[in-house]
Amino acid sequence: MNWLWAIVVGLILGVIARAILPGKQAIPLWLTCVYGILGGMLGNAVAGWIGVRHTEGFDWIRHLLQLAGPC
Question: pTM of the entire structure?
């Protein structure tokens, strides 16, 4: 179930990043979404590797890693 959330969060972050960045992007919207999804999954995997995947409350560290994944 965590991978499903990583995909959803990555998709949302990809669309938000595209809306925030000024100017015309050189890649299509679908590729931006794919990069966001891959970044979310990568951040989720890194969170598991460093042992912060499951924490009490809101997983701020995991979500920050998901955000940093595509960078």
Answer: 0.68
